[in-house]
Amino acid sequence: MKKAVVSGANGFLGSALCHELSEQGVLVIAIVKDADELCEEMKRIKNLHIILSDMSDFKKLDEVIKDRDVDIFYHLAWSGSSGELRGDFKTQFDNVKFSCESLEACQRLGCRRFVFASSIMEYEIMAQMQTDAVPGKNTLYSSAKLSADFFIRTLAGNLGIDYVRAVISNVYGPGEKSPRLVNASLRKMLNREHCSFTNGKQMYDFIYVSDAAKAFFAIGNKGASGRTYYIGSLNPRPLKDFLNQMRNLAAPKMKLGIGEVPFHGISLTYDEFDIYAVKNDTGFCPLVSFEEGIKKTISWIKENENG
Q1: What residue spans of the chain are helical by DSSP H?
Q2: Considering the entire predicted model, what is its pTM?
Q3: Mean pLDDT throughout 271-285?
């Protein structure tokens, strides 16, 4: 791999992927929405070519990207991956459309490999749709991701493009500012704010952000076309194990409110995934343990507590 396009390049995982690609000697064409909002990680990356584009203009990417020797297109851009927009059907519907337009632009760029950033939430919504329960509005995000996978897989096959799907578990680490579980909970713990959780018996998994980026590089470089790769650790565990480990590192004397929040979601067994596929096909294994990753994340939060 000598040249790669990364959409959503200024995001938490996107910037880490750009860094990893650059470290591997790959020239990175990074698609960002606003140059003024480039994160500090992006500003330090070498071999980086910034392309400004809103997702609604992804259909024109082949007009603004002059290269025609791109090896791979990583599609991470997605509006409303957290917060209220998860439940906005117009936003999520547009995401599917823009993803398909990205694939078409990829084909016009002469690029023959497309990696789509997917989510374990797709498996949760599939399981929930087998029940009589009314799905929460925020599951529109999961449904849109699932739809995008079906659309892109079909279109890629008809366009002659290798398609690789990356199912992300839960990525965490320094630089995250979203309200996702690890970031939000660690900040509360460090501020000695009471934290309420479910009973924590549901299975969970986490992967440190630099490891997730290395996994994406690995499947882009060596992954089999048409295959789905699970991006996580090799050791899913009950959520309460992770929560207690976070508490022990952030606020050892703090009592967690485990069991204070009722759980109405879908609990995956993780038998749904071949968690060893990425290791077997590419040789990649996570390098950073959860304990080490949480320590690094805590240090970053303390240094950037107003971030």
Answers
A1: 12-23, 40-43, 61-64, 89-108, 121-128, 140-159, 181-190, 209-222, 239-250, 277-282, 290-303
A2: 0.95
A3: 96
